[in-house]
């Protein structure tokens, strides 16, 4: 066999170490690169089903079930927080009318009258010149409503509606499942807050004014996103509540400054029709501003008539506003606790207790358990009415 030459041996000796070094370097490179090529934990979670461990399930359940209901009333902490925000943003209460108008410069300082003029001139907010058949507006709305002229139709500021809602909701311990009736809801200044708070179809209103109804149905409900709450708002007068159904029972009935404009006789007609629709014990009727329909009769006569209707005068309440110097006076009425007729058995029980005898039910137990007892004969005579 021919022996390898010296040059060939040298080549082998040089090649083997170089090969080992090359393999080591490649292994090290693969070790360093491999983690970056593997999927990240986030990618792993996205690509697979959610983990099903007990710990994870408990965490998810806790997160989705601990939400508390929104409070009705603003708390002192809320007011303190807002005042701090006003101060930190240098937003003091303006001292003069001129100062207010100086701030309006550059932010479209137009009156409602000017806004209405522009809307009419441009044929609506969207400026569509097309015929109605090709117009994209689902609920065409009069310009007077689009500039919210109706917010100035009812005396007190529009913001006062929130104050009225807070007072009535707290005073009646209102829950979302309760049934509410407003007599004269106008343009929904107060009602919007009730409709939003209550479950669907739980708010009823009787309103006689056409313009108010148009504002409520054509603007406020769509604008506030409350169509899904399906409030029942009925046009009518003469205190006719028949369209709301014969079986409905109300937890809260209220009239906010409405009886000022209604003859006393018609107010009493309404109370007569509503007294039987007020949920016993829990139901409340609140009337604000005016109870002259009652006081003009005299205290004793008013009390007598309320009693005949099954109503009881509870008292007068005042409610201050959060936003402006204003308060409302409310008179509260409710149905007293019902006194149920006693059954014949209950009357016998009370009579026996008063005479010192065992009641019929107690006597039966004693007779059943006391065979051979000397009192057995007396008890039996008592049971059959001989004693």
Task: Describe what you observe in this structure.
Residues 344-354 have a biased composition (Acidic residues). Residues 355-368 have a biased composition (Low complexity). Residues 53-73, 341-368 are annotated as: Disordered. InterPro entries: SAM-dependent_MTases_sf. This is Methyltransferase type 12 domain-containing protein. It is a single chain. The chain has 387 residues and is of the alpha/beta class. The chain has a domain at 155-323 and 374-381: 3-Layer(aba) Sandwich (Rossmann fold). It has helices spanning 6-37, 41-47, 54-65, 76-88, 97-103, 112-121, 143-146, 160-171, 191-197, 210-223, 264-275, 292-295, 299-308, 344-355, 360-369, 376-383, and strands at 180-183, 203-207, 232-235, 252-255, 284-288, 312-320, 327-334. Strands 3-2-1-4-5-7-6 form a 7-stranded mixed beta sheet. Helix 8 (160-171) packs across helix 9 and helix 15 (360-369) runs antiparallel to helix 16 (376-383). The protein is extended. The relative contact order is 0.06. Residues 1-13 and 34-63 have low confidence and may be disordered.
